[in-house]
């Protein structure tokens, strides 16, 4: 997916992070309303996390920091209403458990996916991150001891730790050995370019 910028951010901080800082690359401040909005009109994002409690914490934290967000998981009574409001553009960010991926949460355009917890495997991560469909989209893994827990298997660990092109890494995993490095669509290639 050439339209996706892949990156991994690691934090040694064991406390809750500033949630806005993790996604503010994808946001801009609406000066009139003094709140953050997604850069593209009707654009939106999904944050995946491990537990219902984490979804509530992250959504509440984003709201406190000026980003409209709601948590979404199977145990909530109003999941259909939340999904409809999100699809209608009433708020830009939905915070969902990875188990709710199968509930059909999706809207167009979808600008970013952030994983606060690890997918079970690289194939699952690729499917989840592949939901983004904006002209330039983002897939970020944020690693924080408070939220992330154990890395989901050797595949995910290798992806997180690779120093090579993330696009090339994913393509190679799925059997495409021909793809060249992306040059400017993942953190590793951008960092290498800055070094050069």
Structural key phrases:
single chain; 196 residues; alpha/beta; 6-stranded parallel beta sheet; two-stranded antiparallel sheet; 21% strand; globular
Write a brief structural summary.
The protein is an alpha/beta fold. Helix content is about 30%, strand content about 20%.
Task: Annotate the secondary structure layout.
Elements: E1 4-11, H1 19-23, E2 27-30, E3 35-38, E4 45-49, H2 52-64, E5 69-72, H3 79-87, E6 93-97, E7 112-115, H4 122-129, E8 137-144, H5 153-161, H6 166-173, H7 187-195
Parallel strand pairs: 1-8, 4-6, 4-7, 5-6, 7-8
Antiparallel strand pairs: 2-3
- What class, by secondary structure content? alpha/beta
* Total count of strands: 8
Question: Biggest sheet, strands in spatial order?
Answer: 1-8-7-4-6-5
User: What is the overall shape?
Assistant: globular
Largest sheet: 6 strands, parallel
Mean pLDDT, nearest integer?
A: 81
The share of residues in extended strands comes to 15-25%
Low-confidence stretches: none
Number of helices: 7
Helix-strand pattern: EHEEEHEHEEHEHHH
Task: Please give the alpha-carbon distance between the first and last residues.
Answer: 25 Å
Helix content: 25-40%
Radius of gyration: 16 Å
């Amino acid at each position: 997916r050439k339209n996706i910028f892949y990156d991994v951010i690691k934090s040694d901080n064991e406390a809750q992070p500033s949630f806005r800082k993790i996604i503010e690359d994808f946001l801009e401040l609406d000066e009139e309303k003094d709140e953050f909005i997604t850069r593209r009109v009707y654009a939106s994002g999904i944050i995946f996390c491990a537990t219902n409690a984490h979804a509530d914490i992250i959504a509440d934290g984003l709201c406190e920091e000026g980003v409209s967000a709601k948590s979404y998981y199977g145990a909530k009574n109003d999941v259909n209403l939340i999904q409809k409001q999100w699809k209608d553009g009433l708020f830009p960010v939905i915070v969902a458990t990875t188990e709710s991926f199968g509930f059909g949460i999706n809207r167009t355009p979808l600008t970013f996916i952030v994983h606060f917890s690890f997918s079970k495997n690289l194939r699952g991560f690729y499917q989840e991150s592949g939901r983004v469909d904006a002209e330039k989209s983002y897939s970020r893994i944020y690693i924080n001891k408070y939220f992330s827990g154990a890395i989901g298997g050797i595949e995910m660990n290798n992806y997180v730790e690779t120093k090579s092109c993330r696009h090339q890494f994913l393509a190679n995993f799925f059997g495409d050995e021909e793809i060249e490095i992306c040059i400017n669509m993942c953190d590793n290639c951008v960092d290498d370019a800055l070094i050069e």
